[in-house]
Amino acid sequence: MIVAFSVTPIGAGEDVGEEVAEAVRVVRASGLPNRTDAMFTSVEGEWDEVMAVVREAVAAVQARAGRVSLVLKADLRAGVTDGLTTKVERVERLLAED
Q1: What pLDDT does residue 16 have?
Q2: Distance between CA atoms of 55 and 10, rounded to whole angstroms?
């Protein structure tokens, strides 16, 4: 499964980079395949391990701000591994054919 999520501290002001970096540190320390872009961090693995990472990332931000917002989107597809890479590679191949 792939989960794309964003966790945002509420009431921390406009610059939330430090709080968001704490969440990303948790994801990267997990050892699971992951990517971070301007809007979301995506992480890939089995349900329990991915959801544990999301929970820890939220807790890391919540430790710095009493209130957080979590947006989460999940792609649940049995038998797929390395989806973070292969899904993007397929689109890039199709674009290269243009």
Answers
A1: 79
A2: 17
